[in-house]
Amino acid sequence: MDIRPRDDAPRWQRVAYRVIFESDTRAGRAFDIVLLVAVVLSVLAVMLESVHDIAVRYGPFLRAVEWAFTGLFLIEYVVRLLVVRRPLAYALSLLGIIDFLAIVPALAALVLAGSHYLLAIRTLRLLRVFRIFKLGRFVGEGEFIVQALKASRYKIMVFLTAVLTLVVVVGTLMYVVEGGQNGFTSIPKSIYWAVVTVTTVGYGDISPVTVLGQTLASVLMVMGYAIIAVPTGIVTAQMAMPANSAKPAAPVAPAAPAFKQAVCPACQADGHRPDAAFCWHCGQPV
Amino acid sequence: MDIRPRDDAPRWQRVAYRVIFESDTRAGRAFDIVLLVAVVLSVLAVMLESVHDIAVRYGPFLRAVEWAFTGLFLIEYVVRLLVVRRPLAYALSLLGIIDFLAIVPALAALVLAGSHYLLAIRTLRLLRVFRIFKLGRFVGEGEFIVQALKASRYKIMVFLTAVLTLVVVVGTLMYVVEGGQNGFTSIPKSIYWAVVTVTTVGYGDISPVTVLGQTLASVLMVMGYAIIAVPTGIVTAQMAMPANSAKPAAPVAPAAPAFKQAVCPACQADGHRPDAAFCWHCGQPV
Amino acid sequence: MDIRPRDDAPRWQRVAYRVIFESDTRAGRAFDIVLLVAVVLSVLAVMLESVHDIAVRYGPFLRAVEWAFTGLFLIEYVVRLLVVRRPLAYALSLLGIIDFLAIVPALAALVLAGSHYLLAIRTLRLLRVFRIFKLGRFVGEGEFIVQALKASRYKIMVFLTAVLTLVVVVGTLMYVVEGGQNGFTSIPKSIYWAVVTVTTVGYGDISPVTVLGQTLASVLMVMGYAIIAVPTGIVTAQMAMPANSAKPAAPVAPAAPAFKQAVCPACQADGHRPDAAFCWHCGQPV
Amino acid sequence: MDIRPRDDAPRWQRVAYRVIFESDTRAGRAFDIVLLVAVVLSVLAVMLESVHDIAVRYGPFLRAVEWAFTGLFLIEYVVRLLVVRRPLAYALSLLGIIDFLAIVPALAALVLAGSHYLLAIRTLRLLRVFRIFKLGRFVGEGEFIVQALKASRYKIMVFLTAVLTLVVVVGTLMYVVEGGQNGFTSIPKSIYWAVVTVTTVGYGDISPVTVLGQTLASVLMVMGYAIIAVPTGIVTAQMAMPANSAKPAAPVAPAAPAFKQAVCPACQADGHRPDAAFCWHCGQPV
């Protein structure tokens, strides 16, 4: 939804919008950088306060810093609401919600003890870091990565479903094999172990002890080894694809050598090319 | 083997087959999704019951759910047997066996205590999840991944043999080097360690302690580092290969192509299936 | 060196050579497979004997099996020496030495207690497994992988040198940072830790405890993350390269965009193309 | 800055410069190799002295070796300062600083106890190892890797920023979820854990214990699994890109090319350096 102020909006509103929401002016870029520094500093304050030794010494100072930033972000949030054409649309957008969540915990901490730690979600504001990639030469590069991931999203979803299924099946098997012992105390925990293993993280907080369990784990590891090739292959193939590959001369898209779903009405064979006019098996029209 | 009911089979049988086994009708798709949800829910019930705290509280309820699903799957299995042309062919097919195994453990639990846990193999029914990829736009994507893995299968087998040999040789060496101590208590255990290491999982349940052992382990790790490039390279090269790269100028394709190389003698179209008997474009024999 | 028997050698010698050393006859293939099974079985026997529980029960039987295989391999070794034209050339070849080492430990065990475990090197005979790839359709596939690795060997050596340097520098740094404690008890041990970390194995037997150490470790891990892309990229790029890319039309090899080493005599600029005739900087002949 | 001695410098100075700084003469290559061996030996001495058992026995000898190398490097450093045209420019260059740092700690150890361990930074001199890649056939290979990484540097920076943000957000979340326990005692420590996890290192010194924590960790691991595809994809795509892919038909290269895109207006040659002022082929301005 278009949240830009109308052309007949007051001048201050249009200027403020330009500075706060856009980054194609000098002032806009400056605002972005100031905001970014503020976000990083406020996150740093929350982080440092969580360290016991630092909290003991500098606690009051850090809390003051947090309150100052909360105040600043509150003002910023109100101004954002004021300058947009549709305040509700902004407030309900992803960035709007994140901006809101960055203020709430501190305010909630006034009433509710402990909710203070929810300041942690302020870190989500770090996502604004990616605005700086709109500045200068990173545009194309960031775009390139996002584009490649976007183009691969269905393949990656299929892949993740396969991994998920594998992990559930193997996790359950290991629960049975290890007999609910050696850390494999429940199926969900065994699945957690399978994820830790297939992704090659391998904490070692849970690890198989029985001979059969170790054998099964070895098979899973080697499979994980071969499996890791798949997402890499997908993304790489996407990235290596020449940018101008979408020329009309290529009738079949290189990414998806899909087959026609319908079976041949004459011989029931399936697996036809998407553009097939005749059955590859019996030669009848499909 | 063709398990579709004959054309002269009763109408209800042909309709039921269409709904249960195919997914190209509205009812067929709905059945697939209902079945999928049932499988996921029944697996979830088995999983939750394995968690001690949950079993104590909701045990009876979860067991009731499991029995309900077992009943449903039993009915489904019988119906499947009834509607196919050759019940035995279906019962002995991979999916048929999995469908059968999903019911048996619960029934066996009536007679045999403990066999209840074999419900775990019900998770194998999750493989039916992949049926949903037959719905909609995932077809080509899933096909693409499977195709690339299929075309790489011989290379991956050679690679896995090399890894297996490496792991046996290094595992045995480590057993000798560490002197049957520090967890390297037998050669199979040392091989298990070598698998854990070369796949970069690294639980740390067994790790070398002697200087020579740590040196040997370092060499293995760096090798594993270089080795991991191989399956990735294989799959990626396969995926990056343009679908229509099979131009006549290349007499020997560097990797197994998904399509028949020859062009149609009648219309010169290429991109035929490897087992095509007729041109997909003009219908002439190829 | 040519070890094939002369054409005027006795017929039995030429036939035996064909069977034992080659695999292009029916008998040759059969011999290879029998030998392979024997190697796998003998390795299995050594492996099983190392497991304490099994050794207690089946120790005498397993030792008998080992002796039987040692006898067989001894006979095989002697026959190999008899049928080749130059016995010494075979005995000093890599495979010849491995074949010899597979017999020696068992014989040495007669005199020297403990040397029995050296049977482990018999596993090296497993390398003969790769002979089966000479049978059938694996030829091209295995060749493909070996070829890609061979073509990448200089790049991989450069890469490994870089990793080695990184690991020594970071390992030494960590030794100083962690102050010789928390497992970082010496520089070699710290380097071992760095290898475990940069390869993403991560046993956890040694892990940083100080804040500075954990920060440095984080940097190393993220670097390892980016670094792992390099060997994968090298091998993949090699594999994805079309087999017939070496056509005369391509004057500059795609793999090495090397620059001319000499500096321009006029302006001292370097970084010229290998085939440059003029300086890119000042336009003078180079 | 040009640090080569002037043409009217004394002959000994020009010859010494040639030997010490260049490697295109026989003496220069010999000097490089001797220096390399000296660096490796001196680093080895420092390493060995850090091992307690070795230090107890060979301490005095190793310290003598270190002093000998320190003396040699001091002499070498002074000679380097003497032969260059601008000693300050060399002293302030990266290699100059490293050469200086390699001597200082040993000298400082005379005054200050403990600073002895700073000899560790002498390992940085190992970077000179890469000089040997200027010798012979490694030139192009090393150049190739560096070039590919250079061309990918902006993409890798974007990627690392994304990983950094992810790690901060997830680390903070885990701190809240695990409630400051189970090793997640502060946000920085939780971020350290997130780095260990997302890079698939997985020491296991800190690992989630709560159900929610393990679930979140599983998601992070699977994401890390998919994420690792990105840098690999970037570097591989860069490496797989044919060197002469810059055909006039492609107006915007998808990734930064190593060579200037424009063809020479005089002779139509392409493949110029990005900063070329003259054609490498015909010498005309480009």
From TrEMBL, chains A, B, C, D:
It is found in: Membrane. Gene3D superfamilies: 1.10.287.70, Voltage-gated potassium channels. Chain C. Keywords: Ion channel, Ion transport, Membrane, Potassium, Potassium channel, Potassium transport, Transmembrane, Transmembrane helix, Transport, Voltage-gated channel. The chain crosses the membrane at residues 33-52, 64-83, 89-119, 156-177, 216-237. The keyword Transferase does not apply. It is a multi-pass membrane protein. Coiled coil: none annotated. The keyword Transport applies. Residues 29-238 form the Ion transport domain. InterPro entries: Ion_trans_dom (IPR005821), VG_K_chnl (IPR028325), Volt_channel_dom_sf (IPR027359). It holds the Pfam family Ion_trans. This is Ion transporter.
